[in-house]
Each structure stands twice: as structure tokens, then as C-alpha cells.
Design brief:
Blueprint: E1 11-12, E2 20-21, E3 26-28, E4 37-42, E5 45-49, E6 53-55, E7 63-72, E8 75-76, E9 80-86, E10 90-100, E11 107-110, E12 118-123, E13 132-133, E14 140-143, E15 146-149, H1 151-154, E16 160-168, E17 171-180, E18 186-187, E19 192-194, E20 201-206, E21 211-216, E22 225-228, E23 231-234, H2 236-245, E24 251-260, E25 263-272
Parallel strand pairs: 1-8, 10-17, 19-25
Antiparallel strand pairs: 2-3, 3-6, 4-5, 4-7, 7-8, 7-9, 11-15, 12-13, 12-16, 14-15, 16-17, 18-20, 20-23, 21-24, 22-23, 24-25
């Protein structure tokens, strides 16, 4: 004869609530009735505590997904979302680019440091509640020091202005993208640039099959720049020397010419001093 021994049903505790994070990075929450302890889940790693608080150790340039559940000897609660935040440093870098829906070119972005890598890209400014994220491999690819928005992704955008927050291993930068339906050659970078000491200035053009013929103005010569299809690289020595020999100079203005068929398209670039 078999006797069934009654067992006590597991207790389902209420989820923790009332989460707050102090200026000293101490996470606190309200006590849960019946709980004898709590489990704090941080980016996949768990920590057990008996009090309704936990000292966070938040490293710079990281995302943090934090959850907490209540536990007792015979049950537990579900995890409750305590905090989702980021600690990326503001690099105070804003880059602007133009893209035509008629273009078959990608957009290459220098992310501010040669040793930096992209961690994630969010549609919208940092302070917005927008929760749309770009997908690596489909929307962009990355290399050390740069990211490339793919043409396939850019082609999905409607005419208008877009702001992206680019999180990198060194901090975050802002990328502003203006999409138009231009059919004439144009400068992909914004026309106003600030040079970085020790680094050549690289400009990208959508030529629609045309050719960047030359740069002109401010005594620039063919020895001061190189043209490789739609990419123009200006020697940093030329730029730095123009500012060094003329201390009162605040900007360096150069013209460019693009030849498409029998038509010439001209424009200008303003190069400013490094941003402090």
C-alpha cells in the first residue's frame, strides 16, 4: 500500500518594487512580505543579498541591465526590472553626413579614436526614449576606429533628418544623417570640418560616376592631397602649417570641382581648428 504524503505548494512571492539608485550607486527597493533574501541579476551574473539594497559597481562605457527577485525557503518571485542604463562618456563629437536615395555608396564614419570600436547604435539622441537599435551586419559593419552604414540600410530611410547615438568603447558620439533625393554629385561629409592633429583629413564624395578633379584655394597644391575615386585625403601637414604660420586664422576654406560628363559641379569645404 502506497501512502501519498502531502507536500506544501511553492510560495509565489510578490515582485520587488520601489527601486531607487542613490548618488553613491546604491540600489535600494521595498521589502517583500515573506522574503528572506533577494537575488540581484546584473548583465547575466547573480548576487545574493539579505537586505533590500545592493552596492553597484558601474564601470565606464558599459550598458547595465539589472533585475531583482525575492526569495524564501519555499518559493520566490519573478525578476523585476530594477534598472536599464548606460555609463558611456560623452565624447562631445558630432558628425554630420548627407545621403541621396539615388546613391549606391555606403557612409563611413570615423568614430573619434583609432583604437575605438562600436558597441551599439541607437536611433535618436541620448536623452530620448526611442528604443530602436541598429543591427550589426545588416545596418552597419564595424572596424577598429570606424563604422560603415551599409547602402542597403541607407536605402530604407525616407527623405529627412536622422540622429544616431553611437556607443563606442571610448564613449559615445552623435551622428546626424540628412537623407535627400539629390541626383547631382555632392559631399557626403558636412562642409564644415575640424581637423585632428596628426591625422589626415578624409572627405567622401558621391560623384554618381563622375570624378573629383581638384581642390583649390589657400595655396593648396596637388602634393597636398590625394584623390582615390570618391575619397579625397588632405595632408595634415598642409592643414597644420596653414594655421601655424597664420595664428590669427580661424578657418581654412578650400574649393572642390567634380566633373560629371560635360558638367562641372563646384563646392567648398571649411576646415576649422581642433575642437577642444
Amino acid at each position: 500500500m502506497t501512502t501519498n504524503i502531502p507536500t506544501e505548494a511553492p510560495i509565489m512571492l510578490a515582485n520587488p518594487t520601489g527601486f531607487l539608485v542613490s548618488s553613491e550607486d546604491i540600489l535600494t527597493w521595498d521589502a517583500v512580505d515573506g522574503a528572506t533574501g533577494y537575488v540581484v541579476w546584473i548583465n547575466g551574473t547573480t548576487f545574493s543579498v539579505t537586505e533590500t539594497q545592493y552596492q553597484l559597481v558601474l564601470e565606464e562605457n558599459n550598458f547595465y541591465d539589472i533585475k531583482v527577485k525575492a526569495i524564501c525557503s519555499s518559493g520566490e518571485s519573478y525578476y523585476a526590472n530594477a534598472m536599464y542604463d548606460q555609463t558611456f562618456r560623452d565624447l562631445n563629437i558630432e558628425k554630420k553626413f548627407y545621403f541621396s536615395t539615388n546613391s549606391n555608396a555606403p557612409i563611413i564614419v570615423d568614430i573619434g579614436a583609432s583604437d575605438a570600436t562600436v558597441v551599439a547604435i541607437k536611433l535618436g539622441a541620448l536623452v530620448t526614449d526611442e528604443v530602436s537599435w541598429c543591427t550589426e551586419g545588416m545596418d552597419y559593419t564595424k572596424t577598429t576606429g570606424a563604422l560603415t552604414f551599409t547602402n542597403a540600410f541607407l536605402k530604407t530611410l525616407l527623405v529627412g533628418d536622422y540622429t544616431y547615438t553611437v556607443f563606442t568603447s571610448n564613449g559615445f558620439i552623435t551622428v546626424i544623417l540628412t537623407v535627400n533625393d539629390n541626383v547631382d554629385p555632392y559631399l557626403i561629409n558636412k562642409s564644415t570640418q575640424h581637423y585632428t592633429p596628426g591625422e589626415d583629413l578624409v572627405l567622401w564624395f558621391e560623384t554618381f560616376g563622375g570624378t573629383v578633379v581638384s581642390l583649390n584655394g589657400n595655396e593648396i597644391t596637388v602634393n597636398d592631397y590625394a584623390i582615390n575615386n570618391g575619397q579625397v585625403t588632405i595632408d595634415i601637414d598642409y592643414i597644420a602649417n596653414k594655421f601655424a604660420t597664420e595664428p590669427q586664422r580661424t578657418a581654412l576654406i578650400l574649393g572642390y570641382t567634380i566633373l560629371l560628363g560635360s558638367d562641372n559641379f563646384v563646392g567648398y569645404i571649411i576646415i576649422g581648428k581642433p575642437v577642444s
